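Internal ticket #5521
Category: modeling
Description: The requester needs a full-assembly model to guide mutagenesis choices. All entity lines are attached below as received. Residue total reported by intake: 566.
Assigned to: D.W.
Attached entities:
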Amino acid sequence: MRSMNKKVIVPYIFLLPALFLWYFLSLYPIIISFYYSFFEWDGFPGHTPVFVGLANYIDSVHDIFFISALQNTFIWAFFCVVVAVGAAIVLGAAINFKVVGHKFIRVALFLPWMIPVSSSCFIWRYIIYSPGGLLDTFLKTLGLDYLKRGWLSEMDIAIYMMIVVALWVGTGIQVLILSSAMGNVSPELYDSAKVDGANLIQRFANITLPLISSAIMMSISLVLCGALTMFTYPYLLSAGATAVRAQFLTLALLVYQQSFLNFKIGKGFATAWLMILLEVGLAYYYIRRVTER
Amino acid sequence: MKEDFLRKIVGFILIIFSIIYLIPVFYAINLSLKSMNELYTNPFGLPSQIEWENYPEVWRNSGLDSAFCNSLIVATATIILTLTVCSLAAYSFSTFQFKGRRAIFLSFIIGLALPWPAFLFAIFSIMRSLNLINNLISVILMHTALNIPFSILVLTGFFATIPKDYIDAARIDGASELTILLKVFLPLTIPIMVTVATLVFSNSWNEFMFALVLLQRREVRTIPVALLDVQMQYQVKTNYLMAASVIATIIPLIIFTLFYRRIVEGLTVGLKG
């Protein structure tokens, strides 16, 4: 009898350290942020939070920066998904087609991912933004001077510059993921299609794409997930300025600004929960995917 | 034969594209070896005289050396902690049937989609109440949390492929579960452990947000945030900033060269789902 009891407990004992760390560092912050989103609080331990109901949420939606942050976040998510995953499908296909130098190509595209993000952002800031930087000089040599803009200062162009940097860093890993998914497709399928006279494009569209559709979905959700909560690139590309400028604002950065710079903790949490709503759909997707197995 | 021709043409185009893709890297290395003057007089050509001194200068005078040590400590501790708790958990998920197994597993996996910036202040205030602000432990804990979901996913997937016979044989011999994990599983799973360790390392070495908020004193900063200090200190002396950026990339680059194959494999195993 005693050994029976022991057997029942053993699996939980093995789980205990991970469970403790994980729930303490994820679930607990989730609860805290939800609870205090209904309070007005400046974040100092000695000051008592005051219950204000839904006021923070209303305040948060009416924040002058909320709409532009939301807009930037969506632009960011849209372009990151379309370009990174689209490019990864094309480049992954080329790599799997075993084009000349395919190993080099894969490594070269992946390399930026290993560089610390702050380094990448500083390098790109210098390229884009310095007077006489690489980008402006390049345009000048081509005689395209008139295209010159305040790349990181003008509202409508800054977000796209940040997207370029994020794509430069992140596309390689999507290429890796999709090219290895394509590599797992069994070669016999291609051979028999070849015998039937299917050309390259037909083989790709009718065999490869359907078989890697779940890997593509995985890739899309990974990129979306990062893009919807983007913090690091906008923070670093605005040079770590203490005042975050509107052209760089994403929802995550707005949350940071409200809680760490304006000391409006409740409002920051309310904005955070509005951001979380965007992510809930994604979480649902992961759960369904894992349950399918 | 038509396809062979296509392979050459497309390959050639993509090789050119890859080299263009890496221009920012060459550009940064080139800048890091120039004198302040040459940044303006000769911004794109190779340096007329290579200024190796830029490197020792930033290493010694901008706190990069201590940041480098801090980053190494954080990354190493994160790897050890993550691998320990996650392999214990993965062993449980892959070898036992128990009540709530699926629900608990999902509660870890959902973390892949967790919007961490939303909880930044909550985490900050938890760490503050534990007196862990400006203590590397806070960042080690957070980096571990960040890496738990995918580590458990990858390790559980891999552990499940180990034949049940091995476990049964060991159990009949009277081995305890912990002995089985250490003596039977560990030797068989070293490749995947290395893969996970590599990914955890680069996640931790590059992590910016938590390091920014939780480590506010200069002496405890890790590399990604210390680079901000370097920028503040040298302002327009971009040659120094680039030298610092290159130094920050050295360790990830070594890891990348040594374990590239493992990283590719790990992503395939982990994300195949």
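Resolution: model delivered.
Comment from assignee: Chain B touches chain A through 102 residues (CB under 8 Å).
Ticket closed.
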